[in-house]
Amino acid sequence: MRRDRFADLITVLIAAFGLFIVMFGGKPYLTQAVIWTALDIALAISLRFMLLVGEVNLGIGAFFGFGAYTAALLSLRLGVPTPAAILAAGAVACVASVPFGYLTLRVSGHYFMLVSFALTEIARLVYTKSSLLGGNSGLVGIVPDLAGFPYLVLGICASVFAALVALERSHLGRIFAAISENADIVRAVGIPVAAVKLLCLAISSFTAGLAGASFAFTNTVIAPGDFGFLLPVFALAYVKIGGDGHPLGAVLGAVTLAVLSQLVIGLGAEDTLLYGTAIVLTMLFMPRGIVGLLLRPSRRRPTGQRPT
Amino acid sequence: MSGVNLTSQLLINGLQIGAVYVVFALGLTLIFGVMRIINFAHGEFFTLAGLSIATAVPALAAASGWANWICYLLCFVLVMAGMAIFGGVMFKLVFERFARDPVGALIVSLGLSMLLQSLFGLGFGTAPRKVPALLPGITVLAGGRISNDRLIVFVVAVALTAGLGLLLKRTRLGMALRAVAEDREAALLQGIDDRRTMLAGFMIGGLLAAIAGGLIAPTTVLTPIIGADYLTKAFIIIILGGAGSVVGAILGGFVVGFIESFAGFFFDSTFALMLLLALVSLVLLVRPQGLMGHATR
Amino acid sequence: MKRLCLLAISVAVLLLPFGARADVIRLGLSGPMSGAGASWGLLAEWVAKQAADDINRSGGVKIGDQTYTFEVEALDNKYTASEGAKVGQALINRDGVRYIVFALGMAPVRALQSLSEKSGAILFTTGAGKSIKGPQFPFTFTQLNTPFERYLPLFSFVSKENPQAKSVVVVDPNDATGTDAAAVSRRDWARVGIKVLDANFYERGTTEFAPLVTRIVADNPDIVDFSEMPPSDTGLILAGLQDQGWKGVAVWSAGTSAADLIQSAGSASNGVYMALAGDFSGAGATPVQRRLDAGAVVAMGQHMNAISLSAWDATMAIRAAMVKAQSVDPDKIRQALPGLTFESSYGPSGFGGTEEYGSPQEMLLPIIISQIKDGKTVERARILPAELQNRKG
């Protein structure tokens, strides 16, 4: 428990550091870098939330994308104010996830992984064919209508993070962990496992949608290529490299890869080489991720692993 | 359309596309069968073999002056031997510890895939490569036309599939592979060495992908990222056919080939892909074990 | 604690001012350096470096009594909007780049553009269409003949030479460039009186083209227009068309590399018309282009193509504008560019396109119509844009 508190402290310190950079860093580039990292963290923690029930949701790319396009359309076509657009986008992503989850959470394990992957890909293809969504060209000019937008994004990411961590540590979170360990026993006790999993998906899709909407306003330009299969892959990389034993892992994974990719950017093309190597090395030598090295947890098994 | 029977042409298109998919998907499904994992780097075996052959054959032909098809056969054998070794190394270094851990295997193979694709780009360059046609010209079958090289691919794919079937049914290795795939604990009780069996299964699976890549080298252009498209199709195939099922991979491969052929003709390839993905989703919901799979978890 | 220190060090690295020496001007490039299209991006980077080296060797750019040298920074935009935004931030905000000599890929370029216009950085792009330049984007210029410039002259030429051809099918990749270009194709074929039977789109990354080929053959067009397709896809479809018995005229407006086409199409490549290819090693090429082509073969293992070559022309234009305006202030440069005559790799060139786009931001380059004959690129016609002709007098 002491170790968990220590990790919590580090998380808060990193967040404070990020805020500090945005407030006083001066260079707009640094602010952007912090914002992007914050969005990556929000994405990673959303994905990690579903890992708590033992599901790898590769469809998070689709929900992130739904959030982005919804916010963009609301802002561009209907002039909805930015904060409202972001909130609405999260709601849309959440609502969209319900029928999907209802149909697909019955199949679990690698089948859910595959069908969620299919969802992300189908969504991307549909965007390219839809003229409402700008087709292949996507949408441009998604500009936030309030000053201090970076602070709003930081606030959203921090709230998402805090909320998901709070849920994880609540009674609900304990049910998630129980389902991940042995769903049959949980069912036998009378808890509606499918409904709980669906709730988990809905929450994680809501936060992914918020992140996607913030992403749209941050970049001002979105196109289908941004929401493909690589998005959930990177999110998974952040979680695994940072370590899924503690929420700090999502933060560390995103920050580490962000920093590494900055260092590599001068080398030109090869950040796929970097990411790929980082993922492989982590999985081979540090399966509990960076957090695992820091905390050396005894009880906590990395989520998602099935007993052989 | 002068002189071409449309239906025959569409069927031929489906068969020729399906043939490559089948060989590739067989490898993926075999690995799933013995290790219960999905290897996201499967496409890179395909790419590595294809690029190697596409680089070696013109170089050999230029250096030796031998005929194209002789160089091709020589290089094919050499490259496949190399790929078998590569498969073994990948298993021992990376995949062995993730047997039966689909999430871990997913992540490590994704990372490996990205890593290998970058290395291919650095090593082979990004310019597309192709092996010159082995047997230029076309054959007319029942009013439809197929290029000779594609016909060769089809014939070899059929032979290979039959060979694999024989291997699985008639040899000790094949029976061990099937035993481990069916019930690992029972296989262990029978005295089957599951480590060695998994190694064999992984190597054969990777080799099948490599052969698919080598077969296709004279008929298409190869780039470091070509494996990705085939991998997506292979997922679709093994979901439809049932992960771990050889017959399922064959059926699934040709079903996908035909859908691509017909939907690609009447609409376009984007629509064909969406249709396939929707079909896959449907199968996953209604019969997740696929057409031929067992109802296991 | 170790982790925090490492993190702090890394951030400190980010905070370091990025080597901005006053007399060095950084030229930025945003293009695909990995995956599909990497060969264009990587070669463009090499070309820009050659241009910078050339200028530096001849004494740099003298403005008053200050001499400036050029440096090149190329970043990978991966053909996506989000990477394009990251590249834009890195080039403009992090590294203070104010001149971008090459930007490829509609989605990433638009992301970059929103930043470059706001920050007042000159942006040269290969991007086409009215949505990317005009009076509302005063700092943006294009460096390549776009479909709006190329198609009509090419289609007229082809039509005149093949009067029996009456119908065409257009093929394009399913992305922004492809869909925009297909619209221009439809318009301009109609203008020369040829009927467009169909426009087909395919996903980039497709490897099996047989269904698409059968679809085209079923329409039985006299002409197939490969529009903005990349060389290997074009070649595979051409080879497939030949296999499935189609005979007709092949037009490839964005044809940049005959060598790549011949590799994938073999003998089916005979007779293909192109509007963006130069045989940069042959008699029709200028000495500069031949030198670059030879260098590219040695350094990058590929022949020069018009797209990557445009980085040279953009760099030369910027240099000339700096000399004319006697300033390195992007705002003065963007005012100097429109009226400028400068030495591009093709010869004297300038900027025009006011009629089509509303302001003169299109680099005026000859439209080279060539044809592949027996494995060689043969130049058939060189059409100077009317505006350039008028200026030469």
User: Low-confidence spans of chain B: pLDDT under 50, at least 5 residues?
Assistant: none
Number of DSSP helical runs of chain B? 11
Q: Write down the oligomeric state.
A: heterotrimer
Strand order of the largest sheet of chain C: 8-7-9-10-11-15-16
The low-confidence parts of chain C are: none
Strand tally of chain C is 16
The biggest sheet of chain B, with number of strands, parallel, antiparallel or mixed sense and barrel status, is: 2 strands, antiparallel
The secondary structure category of chain B is mainly alpha
Task: Give the helix level of chain B as a range of percent.
Answer: over 70%
Cα gyration radius of chain B (Å): 19 Å
Distinct helical segment count of chain C: 14
Write the element-wise H/E pattern of chain B from the N-terminal end onward: HHHHEEHHHHHHH
Greatest contact pair? A-B, 43 and 40 residues
> How many distinct beta strands of chain B?
2
Approximate shape of chain C: globular
Helix content of chain C: 40-55%
What structural class should be given to the helix and strand makeup of chain C?
Answer: alpha/beta
Give the helices and strands, then pairings:
The complex is a heterotrimer of chains A (308), B (297) and C (393).
Chain A: H1 2-24, H2 28-51, H3 60-78, H4 82-104, H5 110-129, H6 149-168, H7 171-181, H8 183-188, H9 193-219, H10 230-242, H11 248-264, H12 271-285, H13 289-295
Chain B: H1 6-35, H2 42-64, H3 68-95, H4 102-124, E1 138-141, E2 144-147, H5 148-170, H6 172-182, H7 184-189, H8 194-216, H9 227-241, H10 246-266, H11 269-286
Helix pairs in contact in B: 1-5, 1-6, 1-8, 1-9, 1-10, 2-3, 2-4, 2-8, 2-9, 3-8, 5-6, 6-8, 9-10, 10-11
Chain C: H1 2-15, E1 24-31, H2 38-57, E2 61-63, E3 66-76, H3 81-94, E4 99-103, H4 106-119, E5 122-125, E6 140-142, H5 147-161, E7 167-173, H6 176-191, E8 195-202, H7 210-219, E9 223-225, H8 231-243, E10 249-252, H9 258-265, E11 273-274, H10 287-300, H11 306-325, H12 330-336, E12 342-344, E13 347-352, H13 354-357, E14 362-364, E15 367-373, E16 376-383, H14 386-392
Parallel strand pairs in C: 1-3, 1-4, 4-5, 5-6, 7-8, 7-9, 9-10, 10-11
Antiparallel strand pairs in C: 2-3, 11-15, 12-13, 13-14, 15-16
Structural features, described:
With 308 residues, chain A is mostly helical. Chain A has a single domain, classed as ABC transporter involved in vitamin B12 uptake, BtuC. Chain A contains 13 helices and no strands. The longest helix of chain A has 27 residues, at 193-219. Chain B is mostly helical. Chain B has helices spanning 6-35, 42-64, 68-95, 102-124, 148-170, 172-182, 184-189, 194-216, 227-241, 246-266, 269-286; strands at 138-141, 144-147. A two-stranded antiparallel ribbon of chain B has the order 1-2. In chain B, β1 and β2 form a beta hairpin. The N and C termini of chain B lie far apart (50 Å). Chain C has helices at residues 2-15, 38-57, 81-94, 106-119, 147-161, 176-191, 210-219, 231-243, 258-265, 287-300, 306-325, 330-336, 354-357, 386-392; strands at residues 24-31, 61-63, 66-76, 99-103, 122-125, 140-142, 167-173, 195-202, 223-225, 249-252, 273-274, 342-344, 347-352, 362-364, 367-373, 376-383. In chain C, β15 and β16 (376-383) form a beta hairpin. In chain C, α2 packs parallel to α11 (306-325). Chain C starts with a helix and ends with a helix. Classes of the chains: A mainly alpha (308), B mainly alpha (297), C alpha/beta (393).
